[in-house]
Amino acid sequence: MDKVKTFVARNGALIGLVLLCIILAIGAPAFLTGANLLNVGIQAATTAILAFGETFVIIEAGIDLSVGAVAALSSMLAAYTGASMGFPPALTLVVCVAVGAVFGAISGMLNAWMRLPSFIATLAMMSVARGLTLVISDGRPIATSAAVNFFGGTIGGMPVPILTMVVMGVLAAVILNLTTAGRAMYAVGGNMEAARLSGISVHRTQIRVFVLSGIFAAVAGLVIAGRLHSAQPQAADGYEMDAIAAVVIGGASLAGGKGRVWGTFVGAILLAVIRNGLNILNVSSFWQQVVIGLVIAAAVSVDTLRRKEDTH
Questions:
Q1: Which of 101, 71, 41 is CA-nearest to residue 232?
Q2: Residue closest to 249 by CA, chosen among 302, 289, 305, 291
């Protein structure tokens, strides 16, 4: 019985996803078609990539509200340098990723060195990134180069956004599970003072998680721009909420020290399946927001109850 309870506690999101898929398969036969499942994967890709980066931050007991704005700015600069300035394809992609890393580093330094709460630090950087995106674009879309458009294409019939999601997920899992940096993130998130006393550089870890979050956000920006064949000044607006929701739904604790890349992936897929299923059932987009909000509230409530049980 204890094993069953443990399995359900660790895989609640996966169980919910399976049950939801069964319900949708019965109520909407079009849900299980190959084309629709690929569509779900494409819809989930951006959220999942952003959420993989967010996972690092939440495990370290922080929060990153800037990922959507950083994704927009990174893709805008990739479009501007590639299509407007004629940068080589490789350099265009380097610029995009570097922008994400720089913004992540600034957020990390504000949090680690200036002692600003991560909520405030990333809220400020969200405003800066979104403002710079509008300044660079003058509020208008900018066409993207072939290097960026690649991220919206297909390889052997498989959409590149899905392949990118898988690659970034594997990379995130390797960092968290197979590196000393990943173990340090869990240690700092679980007990910062104990981590400090054990010789872990807390400040370095805090900066590192935001840099990684910024890099993952930049890659998500490439996927968004690649799908649209243009960089939009309002791209990824509000996506940070979906990214945070996917991490929490996947079993991570907002108190830090707990989280898995697999859980985050399931959380992102679950959100995409909910939206896709509601679209198939012709549910209003307004009601879709209500449903997503309730799912997020339920996930946070479960996390709160779980932490209360752990303290008793």
A1: 71
A2: 302
Is 128 part of a structural domain of the chain?
Answer: yes
pLDDT tens digit sequence for 36-65: 999 999 999 999 999 999 999 999 999 999
Within a domain: 37: no
pLDDT tens digits, residue range 149-186? 999 999 998 999 999 999 999 999 999 999 999 999 99
Assigned token pair, 61: 């007991």
- Strand 230-231 relative to strand 158-159: parallel, antiparallel, unpaired? unpaired
| Residue 229 forms part of a structural domain | yes
Q: How far is CA 286 from CA 238, 274, 281, 283, in A?
A: 15, 14, 14, 8
Pick out the chain residues at pLDDT < 70: 1-9, 306-312
User: In angstroms, how far is CA 25 from the centroid of its own chain?
Assistant: 27
Both tokens assigned to 151: 């991220």
CA 64 to chain centre: 10
Report the distance separating Cα 82 and Cα 88, nearest Å: 7
Strands (DSSP E) contained in the chain are 142-143, 154-155, 158-159, 230-231
Answer yes or no: are the C-beta atoms of 217 and 69 closer than 8 Å.
Answer: no
Give the Cα separation of 61 and 64 in Å (integer).
10
Does 3 reside within a domain? no
- Residue 206 exposed, middle or buried by CB count within 10 Å (0-12, 13-18, 19+): buried
Asked if 70 and 216 count as a contact pair (C-beta separation under 8 A), the reply is no
Name the one residue in this structure whose structure tokens are 């909407």. 28
Distance (Å, whole) CA 87 – CA 78: 9
Total domains present in the chain? 1
Instruction: Determine the structural domain holding residue 129 and report its residue range.
Output: 47-264
How many CA atoms, within 13 angstroms, populate the side-chain half-sphere of residue 250? 28
Please name every residue paired with 155 in a beta bridge, in sequence order, or none if there are none.
Answer: 158
The pLDDT assigned to 72 comes to 96
Burial of 13: CB neighbours in 10 Å, binned 0-12, 13-18, 19+:
buried
Residues 224 and 236: beta-carbon distance below 8 Å:
yes
